[in-house]
Amino acid sequence: MPTKAELYIRSLVFWVFHALTVFLVVGVLLVFFWLPINQRYAIASSWAKMNINFLKMSCNLDYQIKGKENIPEEASLVLSNHQSTWETLAFQHFLPNQLWVLKKELLRVPVFGWGLALISPIAIDRSAGKKAVEQIIEQGRKKLEQGRWVIMFPEGTRIAPGVDSKYKMGGFIFASRINHPVIPVAHNAGEYWPKHSFIKHPGTITVSIGKPINADSMEPADIKKEVEGWIKQELKEISEPVG
């Protein structure tokens, strides 16, 4: 096992790479802002892919996938638990052209927010209540029809491993209003890259992808029950807490 000092040094190397490459990739993205969205996304996602590869090299942190055969060909809505920053990077490694539902304030963050804006996410005003859900439905339908995957974290924020959380209804209401597959995803990334943690722990994160759900004829509460139940049960099976 590496010492705490070794973990710190490895993590420091990763964070330096992480920061330098965001400036590089966003710079390229700003130069080529006029490209079609799919090409802008390819540029932006190269940053995530570089970081996931470098994470393995610098911190010896890798991942494995259960249920990769459950990924459909058509654009889908992914509903996942949220434990870490890791999943916002890694999902770009194994899921097609995608975007996230996020609070619009993130688009104002210098450099990083500019890059986010250029890949056309679903940016909502979270204080708008029910109107925010309508924003998700209106924008999300258009994105799915364009062939882009939509990623949502029903917990709304990162939740530490082992902590029970309440799933918000927005994603499930959206799922009931579309005729695209709904894919539940569970992962234990927070055990290796915890929320607000500088240090990244070595190991192998497990991502479990569930079978597609045809949710357009279901009530939002029933979708929530099925997806939340599957994710929480799956987390019990894949969880391997780091000491």
H/E element order: HHEEHEHEHEHEEH
Distance between the termini: 11 Å
Strand content is 5-15%
Roughly what is the average pLDDT, rounded to an integer? 92
What sort of overall outline do the alpha carbons produce when their principal axes are compared? globular
CATH class: Alpha Beta
Spatial extent as radius of gyration = 18 Å
Number of helices: 7
* CATH third-tier fold name: Glycerol-3-phosphate (1)-acyltransferase
> What is the CATH-assigned architecture?
3-Layer(aba) Sandwich
Strand order across the largest sheet: 1-7-6-2-5-3-4
Give the helix level as a range of percent.
40-55%
Q: Kindly report the oligomeric state of this protein.
A: single chain
Q: List unreliable stretches of 5+ residues.
A: none
Sheet of most strands: 7 strands, mixed
Number of strands: 7
Give the helix/strand class: alpha/beta
Describe this structure in words.
This protein has 243 residues and is of the alpha/beta class. It has one domain: Glycerol-3-phosphate (1)-acyltransferase. Helix content is 45%, strand content 15%. It contains seven helices and seven strands, in the order H-H-E-E-H-E-H-E-H-E-H-E-E-H. It has a seven-stranded mixed β-sheet, sandwiched between helices. Strand 3, helix 4 (112-118) and strand 4 (122-124) form a beta-alpha-beta unit. Helix 5 crosses helix 6 (170-176) and helix 6 crosses helix 7. The longest helix has 28 residues, at 4-31. The radius of gyration is 18 Å and the shape is globular. It starts with a helix and ends in a 5-residue tail after the last helix. The mean pLDDT is 92.
